[in-house]
Amino acid sequence: MLNLAHGDIEGRVVFDLGCGTGILSVGAGLLGARLVVGVDVDVETLRVARANLKFSEGVFGNLPVHFVNADVSQLYFRADTVVMNPPFGMRKRGADRVFLEAALRGAGVVWTLLGAESDPFVDRLATEKGFAWERVMDFVFSLRKTMYFHKRERRSVRVSLYRLIRFHP
Asked: For residues 48 and 112, what is the distance between their CA atoms, to the nearest angstrom?
């Protein structure tokens, strides 16, 4: 995902909404973002993200990555690019919508993973917010049991990677 988004990351201000353990945030920093802000509502997860950043900086040197504890539905920001792997809306219908709406409010380019073939959902929201979009690729995510509500040790989920870009007036 980040390699494909590299041209929208390097030298830019990047937000990672629902950053979780910070993997996309750290990756964006490694790809040359001017500033990266990882946002998550879960304080414990942010502790892991900060530990991952510290480890990465021990290997690669200082990275322009910062983590913020916030609810994305209440977040107002300006960024060049958002990269995110939000909840897919499979467990709680509409969970992905809050993230995508926040991203479209705050950035000119959005790279997001969503449940497979979310084209109708993406098309409606992008059109409403003045964005063009493309489904870049589809693949299978192998998810390990990491959350208390996960019932199986491992689950495969079909996902699509989307790129949305704001129309310029």
From this structure: 22
Under CATH, domain 2-166 is a member of which superfamily? Vaccinia Virus protein VP39 (3.40.50.150)
Residue extents of the structural domains in the chain: 2-166
Task: Using alpha carbons only, give the angle 163, 107, 160 rounded to the nearest 5 degrees.
Answer: 20
Pairing of β 35-40 and β 107-115: unpaired
Nearest residue to 76 (alpha-carbon basis) of 113, 39, 42, 49: 39
Task: Tell how strand 154-166 and strand 131-144 pair up.
Answer: antiparallel
Spatial neighbors of 83 by CB under 8 A, at least 6 apart, are 1, 2, 5, 9, 14, 15, 16, 24, 28, 111, 112
pLDDT digits (tens, 9 = 90+) for 95-128: 789 999 999 999 999 999 998 879 999 999 999 9
